[in-house]
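> forwarded from #structure-qc
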């Protein structure tokens, strides 16, 4: 829903595509996702617990974001007889975590799609300007032929998301999907204004960003909580 200030309000409603954005934004309202997100938000959650639950949510989100992958027929032999089954068509997926927090999704997603290729996008946020600064980028050479899932737990200012997608598009990617745990309305608006062709999957849309660019109510800094740093 949209609140009185015109912001996209947080919700635990069932999955849907949000109508107020330029490109599809799907809020995954599955009860397991919402339950685990609540556990992650709790300030007393341990580093170990945070990592484990983030990994679990990553697997659940991977299930949702791959729901519409194309299938092709294949003839196989069961222990009983030959039959025609279906398999995912095209080249293998690429998972592209934004370092460092995006790595928290990686193992869970790879458990569902173990043959996926992995691109690494190293960005850090300048504490003064909040702009994303690149320090590492490594990706498969044939991104143009693959579906690329960009992973980052938080879509706050969208500076990192925009920078990562810029890098991947420059390498040839054109079928991209952004997957996050939490999103702010400001981040959604900026990402979809710059990359209106990139759909977003998230577990929740929170209220707003504070003066330091953090999502409110949010869950703090995902990278710090995942690795026990400050």
């Amino acid at each position: 829903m949209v609140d009185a200030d015109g912001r996209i309000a947080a919700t635990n409603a069932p999955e849907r595509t949000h109508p107020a954005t330029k490109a599809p934004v799907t809020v995954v309202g599955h009860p397991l996702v919402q339950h685990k997100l609540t556990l992650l938000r709790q300030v007393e959650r341990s580093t170990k617990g945070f990592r484990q639950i983030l990994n679990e949510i990553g697997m659940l989100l991977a299930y949702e974001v791959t729901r519409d992958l194309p299938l092709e027929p294949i003839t196989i032999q069961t222990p009983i007889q030959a039959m025609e089954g279906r398999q995912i068509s095209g080249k293998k997926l690429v998972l592209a975590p934004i370092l460092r927090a995006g790595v928290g999704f990686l193992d869970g997603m790879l458990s569902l799609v173990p043959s996926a290729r992995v691109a690494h996008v190293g960005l850090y946020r300048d504490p003064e300007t909040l702009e994303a600064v690149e320090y590492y980028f490594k990706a498969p050479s044939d991104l143009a032929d693959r579906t690329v899932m960009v992973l980052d737990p938080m879509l706050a200012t969208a500076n990192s998301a925009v920078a990562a997608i810029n890098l991947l598009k420059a390498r040839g990617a054109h079928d991209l999907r952004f997957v996050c745990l939490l999103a702010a309305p400001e981040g959604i608006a900026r990402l979809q204004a710059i990359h209106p062709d990139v759909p977003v999957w998230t577990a929740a849309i929170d209220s707003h960003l504070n003066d330091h660019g953090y999502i409110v109510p949010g869950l703090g800094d995902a990278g710090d909580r995942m690795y026990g740093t400050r």
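QC bot note: Helices lie at 31-41, 47-65, 106-112, 159-170, 185-194, 222-227. Confidence is low (pLDDT under 50) at residues 1-21.
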